[in-house]
Write a structure and sequence with these properties.
The protein is mainly alpha-helical. Helix content is 65%, strand content 7%. A two-stranded antiparallel ribbon has the order 1-2.
Length: 123
């Protein structure tokens, strides 16, 4: 998508996929917020985009909805596969960490945290 005759496109395809030109931000990073119906202004603020960039992103998504959605679903599947791989690979480490006794540093903070957890479980 181009913003004008002499301007570069707002969206370009990089090795990471569809990205906002001049940034490392992919459209897939924004899609959770778009799908959750966040206002474009909030997404713009979150990612520190310009008005022109967010307008270009929203227009691109609208004009290429099926393509963007298909690629977004592929990204979600790949991310889930990677998450499961690393969870499995680190399962023993997570178990060892969980079994460790709490440290003796900051006993007041640990007591406050335990009290907060107890209150949360009561609610």
């Amino acid at each position: 998508m181009t913003d004008g005759a002499d301007r570069q496109p707002t969206i370009t395809r990089t090795d990471r996929g569809l990205s906002i030109t001049g940034t490392r931000i992919t459209l897939y990073a924004l899609m959770d917020y778009v799908k959750a119906n966040w206002p474009p202004e909030r997404i713009r603020e979150l990612y520190n985009l310009t008005d022109e960039q967010i307008a270009g992103v929203m227009q691109y998504i609208a004009e290429h909805h099926d393509e963007v959605e298909a690629e977004y679903q592929e990204v979600l599947v790949e991310a889930d596969e990677q998450r499961r791989y690393w969870e499995e690979r680190n399962r023993e480490r997570f178990a060892r960490i969980a079994a460790m006794p709490p440290g003796t540093d900051y006993p007041e903070a640990r007591a406050k945290l335990a009290a907060a957890r107890a209150r949360q479980q009561e609610e």
